[in-house]
């Protein structure tokens, strides 16, 4: 067990840096101290993150770029160190993507998401570990809550770094469940925006049809702050009008995919929400979840074969078995199956919206994973509970919701396509209510 997971939430860190309560140099040194003290056990950071000298030099450069005395003139993430999943390109850092391929083969221009963070005053503390090419071959990262359990994947390092208090913000991606699941396993907030609202250029693709850029924080307010920087066309005026959302529970075979302990934890979370005054409506949804799962998996395989075609032709012997099997499957996927998969994204989105409208549902609430983090590091856990929300491309926030046998569990809340601002506004009170979950 790692005894110290203390760390600050993003929103208060950003306020302290912008106000001058602390300086970027001082906070960079604090983050580096924590990495030195904690990361040997958890292994969230690739090569241990940037050196102290490098990180402090970047903090000094941020201070020089924004020398104004008026805190209101400082950018929103002034001096905030961030972790970046190692499938994002960052100038000055190699991209390994959790693989044995030569980094020179994978190199590319800095990702737009990274550039937006830097323009907002953030500095990159380093790369965080990922499963190979954001698929299933595990990273070396451990769960900060119990080192014998997985942190989830594929954004393993980013979730663990935030949970371990070694960064207040970290970028991840989700193609099936790679933000929301590790957020639940590590007990932090994860956000997967609406499909396409954060550009994916500069990110090594797994499936261009369903890849999402997302991120991790300790606090909902921080997730909202990061969203205002990262998302295209951020609309703060689209926040809620003061009314609480009616929450829909997707009853049916979808929920049968949970474990017994996971289902009990989810029902406890629903009780906590109801006890806090939320209207919770059980509505039949995802009756064809098996077909949705198959359609999504086939689409990811076909897209992966296209994205990795040249690399795989040259370096097939360096790919992990799981990733190689995915690419081989994708090579054999009929074009008609790909077309059906892409069309199915919109159909599923429309189906969800129709049920929500019929039952008066404003947002859906569901388990963030089948149960708590599995024991062992050979398996990052099953993303099946996240899959339909990713396939539909709707915004989804993962919130901590108690624990099972000392390990965190979470729920995910999904809103209408494009309704990211309203979802993150709702999430603050939802997170408070969920603190009462067993």
From TrEMBL:
Pfam families: Amidase (PF01425)
Matching SUPFAM superfamilies: Amidase signature (AS) enzymes
Domain Amidase: start-end pairs: 32-424
Gene3D superfamilies noted in UniProt: Amidase signature (AS) domain
Disordered: annotated segments: 135-161, 236-256
Highest taxon of source: Archaea
Ranges of Low complexity composition bias in the record: 152-161
PANTHER family: AMIDASE DOMAIN-CONTAINING PROTEIN, TRANSAMIDASE
Name by which UniProt lists this protein: Amidase
Organism whose genome encodes this protein: Halobaculum lipolyticum
